[in-house]
Design brief:
Length: 355
């Protein structure tokens, strides 16, 4: 393991993500990976200072579990309705198999919460939220293929290619990718055409040669390489994982009619939680079982992939996660604290998740 400290990592992360370094706030400190499996409830109160408005989360009135279940159910119904069984039936079965297999629906929830934060309505964000989840599902189907991560388990079920074959799995991913853009363009209602076009452009950029694909390629090229450093690891995950999470939040803000300032603050928020998601994922991969994760545990170690625990160790990786939490919350300062409650809670959920 590389013997390094957190101090050189923080400036590197901020250089790559263009985020300001947030001041240390002890009250925002989280204990990661609580043994409790229940989802917490939160309330939000605002404390005004001369410099800014600081948001404090306490466990009281905001029922995050109810919020998450309601939004996830709404998204699941919309996904089910969006991709119905039709001819050719096999490809639609394969698409639905992975798309409706469950999952936390974090990306769609982020999209809806961002839309509502800037004054938009849930129904306005639903097509974009579904599109992001379709693309995320495509990436999982393709990730699991033998030519990629070669995985047999996803969300506690056999992976798509194990059920439908590699050829159909590839095509199912392709079909989900194409339909995602069609769905945003056709199903979005009550949003100015210019905003829809901008959202489509943001989504495309997040998954192409400047986004998810770029991160995937560098990740593949880094397997088995002994001298992969933090800068390259940051590049991989800011593109492979954070880019689509960023797109989810930004699409929600655009569809909701957010100002340029609001969109950019939420973009920076999303980069922090996107990287946080991957840091947590890396830690869970080496601390949880396959049964707990619903997917193959320890596969990064087997594939000799570079991860945050491999480069920094578990303790320093958790410290970096704490820093990302602070940065994410800092970007929410200035928004209505009640409307921002879901994004605060989703940040905590990403940090606390057990799979």
């Amino acid at each position: 393991m590389l013997n390094t400290t957190l101090s050189p990592l923080i400036p590197l992360y901020h250089t790559l993500s263009s985020l300001p370094i947030a001041p240390k706030r002890a009250r925002d400190k989280l204990v990661l990976f609580s043994s409790s499996s229940s989802l917490p409830s939160f309330s939000v109160s605002a404390v005004s200072t001369k410099e800014d408005t600081a948001h404090v989360i306490t466990q009281d009135t905001f029922d995050f579990k109810a919020y998450m279940l309601h939004k996830a159910n709404t998204v699941n119904q919309a996904l089910d309705a969006a991709i119905a069984l039709r001819d050719p039936e096999k490809i639609h079965q394969a698409m639905r198999y992975s798309l409706l297999a469950g999952g936390k629906r974090v990306r769609p929830l982020l999209c809806i919460a961002a839309c509502e934060l800037v004054g938009g309505a849930e129904e306005t964000a639903i097509p974009a939220a579904c599109a992001v989840e379709m693309i995320h599902t495509m990436s999982l189907i393709h990730d699991d293929l033998p030519c990629m991560d070669n995985d047999d388990l996803r969300r506690g079920k056999p992976t798509n290619h194990k059920v439908f074959g590699e050829d159909v799995a590839v095509l199912a991913g392709d079909a989900l990718l194409a339909f995602a853009f069609e769905h945003v363009a056709v199903a979005t209602k009550g949003v100015a055409a210019a905003r829809v076009v901008r959202a489509v452009g943001e989504l495309a950029k997040s998954i192409g040669g400047e986004g998810l694909v770029a991160g995937q390629v560098v990740d593949i090229d880094s397997e088995g390489v002994s001298n992969v450093g933090l800068e390259r690891l940051e590049f991989i995950h800011l593109h492979k994982t954070a880019a689509l999470l960023e797109a989810a939040v930004v699409l929600g803000a655009i569809m909701g009619g957010g100002t340029e300032e609001e969109v950019e603050k939420l973009r920076k928020f999303a980069r922090s939680i996107g990287l946080l998601f991957q840091v947590v994922d890396d830690i869970l991969d080496v601390t949880k079982s396959s049964e707990e994760l619903g997917k193959t545990a320890g596969k990064d170690l087997v594939a000799d992939k570079v991860t945050y625990p491999k480069l920094l160790g578990i303790h320093e990786s958790k410290e970096f996660a704490d820093k990302l939490i602070e940065d994410a919350k800092e970007q929410l300062a200035g928004f209505d604290p009640l409307k921002a409650a879901p994004l605060f809670a989703l940040t905590n959920y990403i940090a606390y998740r057990q799979n």
